[in-house]
Amino acid sequence: MFRSRTSALAPALALALAALSVQGQDTKKEIEKYQKMIADSSPVELYELQGEALWKKKQGPKGASLEACDLGRGPGVVKGAYARLPRYFPDTDRVMDLEARLLHCMTSLQGRTREEATKRVFGDDDNPSEMEYLSAYVAGESRGVAVSPGTRHPKEKASYELGRTLFFYRAGAWDFSCASCHGEEGKRIRMQELPVLSTPAGARAVVATWPAYRVSNSQFKTMQWRINDCYRQMRMPEPNFVSDATIAVNMFLVATGKGEPYRGPGTKR
Q: What is the pTM of this model?
């Protein structure tokens, strides 16, 4: 009796699973339509314009702008610089991403203290931070440039390996890692798909569009914020701003997704 009932239920179960699969595909298409709609009306350009003004604004004890800042392509060269970060900088003997390099230029060129320059690196409602505006401007100058972080210097290789280790490292109250959310296909939080970021296909869509404007809270967010917030959601201690650990995670993601043309700053849910 049990076997015959199971046999009778099998076709119905198969139909139900097929219906769920079709429903899932339809949902994915609707989400993609929504994402395209919000991208077409993104105010990212306004952040870029404000960032350019801040780049040229004279500030700090030295009364200097950031126009002589070397982002890896020479002093003052912004075009294509973001797509080539993170990378090793000889003047600091350290691998740096965009925000780490901007902070370095604020302190070295403008004479500002780290405490003053990092007083507010993550903005809030209707009040973006200086770092977010600058990130929008610099990143926007790399549109169409292939993502190609530094990967040859020994410290760049070490940063990549550290980032890979941290990506899979489980810790905190929930015993989570980055891979807990971004390590398997088919995961989603509400309307946001969770790509497998340890694969080139999964990483490319992310590194090619961050930093990004988030429609859900009408704020522009940087990659450092994204990594920092992931640690918060995993219930781990908050990382120091532009720490070697967060830069390493960024390096791992960008190196994994290298070769993708940069098309950000993007627009997210």
A: 0.83
